[in-house]
Amino acid sequence: MKSVQINGVQLPAVGIGTWNIGDDPAKLNDEVNAIRAGIDRGARVIDTAEMYGNGKAERVAREAINGYQRDNLFIIDKVLPTNASAKQLEHSLDRSLDNVGTDYFDLYLLHWRGPVPLAETINEMEKMVAKGKIKSWGVSNFDVSDLQEMWSLPSGDHCVANQDLYNLDERGIEYDLLPMMADHRLPLIAYSPLAQGDTISGKLTDNQLLKELAANHQATIYQVMLAWTIRNGNVLTIPKSSSVDHAIANWEAGEIEFTNDELKILAKEFPKPSSKQPLATI
């Protein structure tokens, strides 16, 4: 299993996402068991946000982690941009901490840019670190200009991660954002690494090359797609797991190692951009 270091903590490169869970009470047990299956296999990172189901995903995470040793987990949460102010950020943080049932988050992200000045948000993040409510802070959906602005601000260099959309279908950040982050040793957290399944352009699950690679590795196409996102290191990928089987498959994807030839043919089939692209988001 590849690993990634965030805020000095070495973590398995495959984590557990919680986007779009908690909405259907009939699926609660399956969702809880899926998260637990991931943890039982060795996953440490659980990624959630106050926006996900207006706290419902956080509460599913709370039930899932009940009984596990907190120090063995690395929990990421996110604040909405409208709540990232001096007046509101701590209130939102406290609500999320209560929803998840923990005294602190290992990483707290600004979910995307919004109306609150970035300097104000960073100042509040620093206060929360000083209070022990979060161990570190980061950002999400930031592009090159956003990071440059952040690094120009007081304490902006305390940011420990940037979370962006990244998958075989969306390689835009490879043109300039990922190289710049690598230069600054800023890890990427890749969200939607499975590219929304069949709904994306080209229907990756029907791609002949991906079918052949999956067969070569005795894996599924989804596992190949997931393994690709962490192929170069410095990336934490956070697929959602809606069932125990999916959770186990996601974890096992982290064991796939591509040959140089396989990476070359993947790059030919899914070329990286040759020019600056607008930052892709969902």
What's this entry about, in short?
The chain has 282 residues and is of the alpha/beta class. The chain is 37% helix and 13% strand.
Looking at this protein, list some descriptive labels.
282 residues, TIM Barrel, 8-stranded parallel sheet, two-stranded antiparallel ribbon, 37% helix
Structure description:
The chain has 282 residues and is α/β, with parallel strands linked by helices. It is 37% helix and 13% strand. It contains 10 helices and 10 strands. Strand 8, helix 6 and strand 9 (188-191) form a beta-alpha-beta unit. Helix 1 packs parallel to helix 9 (244-253) and helix 7 (208-216) crosses helix 8 (221-229). The longest helix has 14 residues, at 28-41. The protein starts with a strand and ends in a 13-residue tail after the last helix. The model has no long low-confidence stretch (mean pLDDT 95).
Please describe the topology of this protein.
Blueprint: E1 3-6, E2 9-12, E3 16-17, H1 28-41, E4 45-47, H2 56-65, E5 74-79, H3 89-100, E6 107-110, H4 118-131, E7 137-140, H5 144-151, E8 162-165, H6 177-183, E9 188-191, H7 208-216, H8 221-229, E10 235-237, H9 244-253, H10 260-269
Parallel strand pairs: 3-4, 4-5, 5-6, 6-7, 7-8, 8-9, 9-10
Antiparallel strand pairs: 1-2
* The level-1 CATH class: Alpha Beta
Instruction: Name the CATH homologous superfamily.
Output: NADP-dependent oxidoreductase domain
DSSP strand tally: 10
- Overall structural domain count: 1
Task: Give the SSE string.
Answer: EEEHEHEHEHEHEHEHHEHH
Global morphology: globular
Major beta-sheet overview? 8 strands, parallel
